[in-house]
Design brief:
Blueprint: H1 9-15, E1 23-27, H2 37-45, H3 55-72, H4 77-86, E2 88-91, E3 94-97, E4 109-115, E5 118-122
Antiparallel strand pairs: 1-4, 2-3, 4-5
Length: 126
């Protein structure tokens, strides 16, 4: 079993058949969500691959900051951070909010089984 760092085709090229059945934790495939269709099309139109495991979490992080600036009515980082930690924000990865310690609530990783030369299959429910 490995973390997101091994969830790419390089592991199959290096390990060949030995990568078959490897369990990998990754964010769910947000590019497959019909609500994200316009974002997927825009990313593809820019010549990029929207299926990477961190594409949508990164996109959502920028969206969260933009919404935090708007909610704070300021670009002051302390005010933006306070607004983000006090609110719930709709993003392409779902609603994001933080607990009293400042940790992100409800973001879940998925366990996938890796297959050499074939798509990964989900082992854990999303």
């Amino acid at each position: 079993m490995g973390p997101e760092g091994v969830g790419n085709d390089s592991i199959s090229q290096i390990a060949q058949d030995a990568s078959e059945g490897l369990l990998v934790t990754l964010p769910k495939s947000f590019d497959a969500d019909p609500e994200n269709k316009k974002i997927v099309e825009a990313i593809k139109a820019d010549g990029k691959d929207p299926s990477g495991p961190f594409v949508f979490p990164a996109y959502s992080a920028v969206e969260l900051i933009a919404q935090g600036i708007k909610k704070a009515g300021s670009e002051d980082t302390d005010k933006v951070a306070a607004a983000i930690h006090a609110g719930t924000f709709k993003t392409p990865t779902g609603e994001l909010s933080y607990d009293e310690k400042g940790d992100l609530k409800d973001f879940k990783f998925v366990v996938y089984e890796w297959h050499f030369g074939k798509p990964k299959t989900e082992v854990s429910p999303q």
